[in-house]
Amino acid sequence: MLFSTLTRSLLMAGMAVVSAHDTGSSSSSLKEVPNADNSLPELLSLQSIPANWVSSDQTKLEEGRIILTPKKQSKGSLWLKSSVKLEKEFTIEWTVRSVNYEGDSTGGMALWFISSEKMKDTSLYNGPAKFNGLQILVDNNGPLGQSIRGQLSDGSILFKKEGIYDKSFGSCLMGYQGTSVPVTIRLSYSESLVSSNNNMLKLQVDNRVCFQTNKINLPRDAIANNGLYNVGITADNGNTDESFEVLKMKYYDTVTEDALIPNVKAMGQPRMIAKIIDQSTGEVKTVEKEVLDEQNDHTSNYELFMKMDKIEGKILANDIKHLQDKLETIMNNQIRMVEQMNHLLEKLKTGASPNGEKQSIMDDESYKQFFSVNEKLEKLVQEREKLREVNQKEQSLQSNSVSSDEILKKLAVWLLPFIILTVVLAYYTFQIRKELTKTKLL
């Protein structure tokens, strides 16, 4: 993946990054001389592989190039004999090419910058499947075709060819087959003096940025064998005639000026083609989609259900809150009416008799039915309070979804008896007033 965009604002940011990682002196550009001990000399003048390099399997030097896989179903490797001491920065440039084959293959070529250890395993493109460091893989067996990608490991992961593509932290398309033109792969690393979160790791192919990140820190402590790393290249052509060749290799103890070029030359990134078929007309359309968009299309029914359930819960909660407010208003009105009724009854109970003595109306048989209605009304208020508590519990737990229609039905069931009782109470109140009027007249 590419960690920058091609906007003018980020171009200026890229220039700032260049100056931020210029940890050397101002004359660093004048010191861009390869480290001879860690680089390959001019191969055209050699008769054999240099003594400071170790080759294996079918690797051979021929006509100014080191051929890693000279024949069908062959393997090869080329490693620096001495380990490289990692300082604060470096740049490695490999000039390679692939000839004699084009198409899918289980083989590939890998560039290594890994901790210095005994490497007896050669199961991963003729290199170790378990390593501590960085691997750059070039192959045509992944889901995106011809590409170059980076894998990072701390030595705890066992890589396999089948699942290595899911463990890549960065990748881009690179057409290396079907052409005799070499490609130059440049790997640059710079350690920040301020924070490990501001390091720079950049991969370029022919001066075009493949990926760049500041989240990688190559250790220099005892975990990484005190900063000693092995540098090499391995290849395996599977069951094909593909010939992987090394033409140049240069190692710099600093970040070169070419490595600090702003990210204005981006390499092509993977794209997927989606086919859309119109069911009514049968018309077929093809649409380009980003890889991440393709991955985001895979959403399970369970995830959709959970999202819909969450939305429904929020809508229902808002609906119940509106009805709950109305119910609160009705309950408060009922309480005030009951208080007024009780106040009126108290006055009736302590009404004055004709001879000036207070007479309790409770003893009067004619008012028993009225007090019975009052008791029922008090029970109704208590039941209303219970209903209110139940509704509050249901809303807080959100365990049951109550529709607005059900609430209105319940309100209608409860309000109808109350209206009837209110009418009856009004009738008896009117009768009581008439009786009081008669009593005063007498």
Automatic annotation (TrEMBL):
First and last residue of the signal peptide: 1-20
Transmembrane segments annotated in the record for this chain: 411-430
Record keywords, A-Z: Coiled coil, Membrane, Signal, Transmembrane, Transmembrane helix
Gene3D superfamilies hit by this protein: 2.60.120.200
GO CC aspect terms: COPII-coated ER to Golgi transport vesicle; endoplasmic reticulum membrane; endoplasmic reticulum-Golgi intermediate compartment; Golgi membrane
Coiled coil: 373-400
GO biological process entries: endoplasmic reticulum to Golgi vesicle-mediated transport
Main location: membrane
Localization in the cell: Membrane
Topology of this chain in the membrane: Single-pass type I membrane protein
GO molecular function: D-mannose binding
Domain L-type lectin-like: 30-254
Pfam families: Lectin_leg-like
Protein name, per record: Similar to Saccharomyces cerevisiae YFL048C EMP47 Integral membrane component of endoplasmic reticulum-derived COPII-coated vesicles, which function in ER to Golgi transport
